Amino acid sequence: MDLLYGAYGRASDDDEEEPKRQKLARSSSNANSPKPKPYPPPPSNHSLHLQTQPLLPYISKRQRALSGAAPSIPDPVPVCNAIHLMTLFLFLSLGSISDSDLPPSILSLMRNKGKGHRDLSLIPERLSVPLYGHTKAVNSIQWSPTYAHLLASAGMDHMVCVWNAWSRNQKKARVLSFHNAAVKDVKWSQLGHFLLSCGYDCTSRLVDVEKGFETQVFSEDQILGVLKFHPDNPNLFLSGGSKGHITLWDIRTGKAAHSFSRSLGPILDVEFTNNGKQFISSSDVSGSNVSENSIIVWDMSRQVPLSNQVYVEAYTCPCVRCHPFESTFVAQSNGNYIAMFSSTPPFRLNKYKRYESHGVSGFPIKCNFNLDGKRLASGSSDGCIYLFDYQSSKVIKKIKAYDQACIDVVFHPIIPNAIASCSWDGSISVFE
Q: Which spans does this entry mark as compositional bias, Pro residues (predicted)?
């Protein structure tokens, strides 16, 4: 309990270790607006500063012939420097994460937070930006909440890509190849250019996208399929994996604060609710033929389930999403529909409303709400994007996006009529 209590402490709990001079300077300049403590700097062995070879004095051919001295051969470049050179070359050959080369219309929307263009009833209709770079299926995508022109994607090709989606030059801004197996999920931190990813190599990896540093690695004894940052404390995140374990990690210590487990099947998704005091987990319980326990609501402080009989139908749910304002959440069901539940006790299923017409067919199809919660978008096994009206649950738009399954669909955090989607064939698209 002491470890968990420490994990929920404010990000400034470690300030006692700072020198008094720095502490006084910070408090005097920013007394009324404390900022969260940034993630720790990367270890020295991940530095991109290259060690250059010492320059040799120039000796002419005549001088070498007269002296009879053999030309000295410099030592080979160390392997680590060669890797750094390759990484630096890759970064130089890709695009920029800056918003300096965005079209004026997009840049204006970004800087003005969408003011003047916040007609949330607008529906995406046409393909605006195709993004190609993954060679296998893309499992997850997410817009950056702080740098909204950047889109991250996680692929089965072991790569995490960062896209400067509307850039007029190179749209692929970063390729992060720190995982040595397929990557299942990727999430942006609220603390700037930090990106968290997890996958089949049983690790979650935190990367500074701007510098290309892998700052921390969180290892487990299970394949990891899902990540979720705490909504109020960016130093905490949940990870769920193939053995049914859910772990609460503290980035400040690099250690697990707590583990939530009921010996179920693989964790398919997790979602915070009630301001981070609770979270919802979805498990694959098809192997045990148990309909209950597929969706569980957990109490964070007491580390106990509040309910394990939320969804009693014999289907697994690859995705769970909370409504941004109302006390409800939805779950994508392998029964080819999206079910709705109350996110307050007794967490009941709404038997009179469901979102259907799309297909799941065993794919990890995801769904997401738009900015005001009036629209719900879902991928589909038929390669289409389905847009539903939240209140009526009717399909208001169907967009044919891919020949193979559309896996994930996410609304832009600022531009209301822009969505990004990804496919089982490795394609990523932005629709406006």
A: 35-44
